[in-house]
Amino acid sequence: YGVGVRRMVSILFLIGYLVIGIPVCLYAGAIAFEQIFDFATVFGISEGMALTILIVLVGIIGALYAVLGGMRAVAVSDTINGILLVLGSVLIVGVKDVITYEPAKLNAIGGKNDPVPFACIFTGMLLANLFYWGTNQVLIQRALGAKNLKEGQKGVLLSGFLKMMVPLLLVIPGVIAARLVPGLTSKDFAYPSLVARSLPWPVVGLFCAALFGSIISTYNSFLNAASTVFMIDIYKPIFNPNLSEEATVKLAKKIGWGFAAFAIIFTPFLDVLSTGLYDFGRSFTGFYNIPIITMVLVGMFSKKGSKLGAICATIFHIAFYACYKFIFPHIDTPFTNAVSGINYMYIYAISFVIMLVIIFVCSKIAPN
Questions:
Q1: Minimal CA–CA distance to 260: which of 49, 16, 3, 22?
Q2: Which residue among 14, 19, 51, 233 has its CA within the 20 to 30 Å range from the CA of 273?
Q3: What percent of the chain has pLDDT over 70?
Q4: CA distance 349 to 218
């Protein structure tokens, strides 16, 4: 697609990491520790204040870890934390309890008003997951950090296996929490509340140590990716093409500190609890994930991609999705009401089809 499109994609990634990826990660950590240890009650402060303090603490510690440790620290800690989290999650699972008391909650089809309707799996969810697992710099950077191709392939396969365990290790405990922890003010509180109630305290301590390490690891993976994208795709080619590798790494660490400071200040102002972390993160990544995966798929399976098409399709999607998120809900017309009532995952798929048309039309007007 050319240097201009590549740079456009890098900017989309960078904005996405700084205003969505990193803040959601910090919020997740703060929520987990607040629900397990109840700092608000212990120190006699509001829950919002407790979350803000925890966001700042996790952000500062994570920044130290990310900037000083680099990708090797991520790889080593992820291995240890992953093992501990899987073992801890297995202790929480009680499938028999769910089957006995809440069998209706095991219905995977659900209804049309669910946060993620079933048909989304075959439309927008498919595109979102293709983007996340196949093109996201946070994950790609880990795979490319392997010592050789064979080791990288093993890592990807192991990650896929662990992902397939998510329904057992995360979804089932969430269903259990609905029965054992009544009165939750947010669905994001379910899992950590269940951990605090169901595990012995020594095990809770071990679980929290692994959870803290995993949150820090995810956070610094985002910081690493953001710094890499900024330095390699934006700063170095535009401002200092002759910058040495050693100088690039040193400057990237300074940039990482700046990104961390921005995220720590920005995160407490996000209203994520009203919709839930998952929906907030997934819906807002829609601004950049669908244009990127569309360009990648066209590039892989067709020769019709063009610079003009990529730019026009991206501009269309961002404008269309911004209207869907922020403008249409406040305009009372049959059209806007109908569009606003569509789940954002379906909007992904609709926009994907329109972008394909735009790209192919533009390839006729201005072919590469």
A1: 22
A2: 14
A3: 95
A4: 28
